[in-house]
Specification:
Length: 294
């Protein structure tokens, strides 16, 4: 009986899909044109600087082109390319009617469809992150982390993850990790532990942006639907942040120790030239004793 119900449901679903497909009709000229420009954008994006061979960006000065330049160029083309197949009758017959042509994308359509509020929201977040860097706020935060030197490494990981997860709610993930990674590396050396012991939870913690619309683009997209309020996202995101912080702290003190060899001190760490020999010896002696019991 259940197999009959399932086959009947599948047949109905297939009929609905086929009916909707027939309603679409043949592919229009505008749809083909948009598909062409989408493929053109993808090709230009991947061939700009493929690394293993010279891309078309090598034809310009370094830093002159970027992914944004590619996207803006294709969008500008949409404002000029006709939405209907152009007729060349007027070229051979001067008396032929010259019908008005409309572009694939008009400015009025862009004003109505593009979520400008989300763009301004994300732009404000990037501006805030740049302001924190230029104003010296990031350096001030780094100096405030000095009291963590007296804490056990396990507690330091927990506090660092909470701090970064809170900071990334107001700034982009990239800006957050750029600000904090050098600070965490220096702090790990002062704590005499493997820098990865603090840098890994810091890197993962900067993705715990669940509470505010400005935290990350997916949050902004969900908020733009109008079905969510800020308090709804904050209430649910707080629970997710707490769960993520606790699970990350547990992972860093259990299986991550053996996977990333956190009970050893890597050779790639650049120590200060002065007293580097004594500090390295001290670190090698204390790192293993600090993390092995965990």
């Amino acid at each position: 009986r259940s197999s009959d119900l399932r086959s009947g449901a599948e047949a109905k679903a297939k009929a609905v899909i086929e009916e909707d497909y027939r309603k679409l009709g043949p592919t229009k000229f505008a749809e083909k044109a948009v598909l062409f420009f989408f493929c053109l954008f993808a090709v230009l994006l991947f061939t700009r600087d493929p690394k293993f061979i010279p891309g078309w960006a090598s034809l310009f000065k370094p830093g002159f082109t970027s992914d944004a330049v590619t996207g803006v160029t294709v969008v500008v083309m949409l404002f000029f390319f006709p939405a209907q197949k152009p007729s060349l009758k007027w070229w051979f017959d001067l008396k032929a009617l010259n019908t008005e042509s409309y572009p694939l994308l008009s400015w009025k359509k862009a004003q109505d469809v593009v979520p400008w509020n989300i763009i301004l929201l994300l732009g404000g977040g990037f501006a805030m992150a740049k302001g924190c860097e230029e104003s010296g706020l990031s350096s001030w935060i780094g100096s405030r982390l000095q009291p963590l030197e007296d804490l056990p490494p396990t507690v330091a990981v927990l506090l660092v993850t909470v701090l970064i997860a809170s900071f990334t709610e107001f700034a982009s993930n990239t800006a957050t990790i750029i600000v904090f990674l050098p600070i965490l590396a220096e702090l790990a050396i002062r704590l005499k532990v493997n820098p990865l012991y603090l840098m890994i939870p810091g890197t993962v913690g900067c993705s715990y942006a669940f509470m505010l619309p400005v935290s990350t683009p997916p949050n902004s997209v969900a908020f733009a639907t109008g079905h969510l309020m800020v308090k709804d996202m904050a209430r649910t995101g707080l629970v997710m942040n707490l769960m993520g912080v606790l699970l990350l702290s547990l992972a860093m003190n259990t299986w991550a120790v053996s996977i990333f060899q956190l009970n050893t001190f890597p050779e790639w760490v650049l120590l200060p030239l002065d007293n580097s020999t004594s500090l390295m010896a001290d670190v090698l002696n204390t790192t293993s004793s600090t993390l092995t019991p965990l």
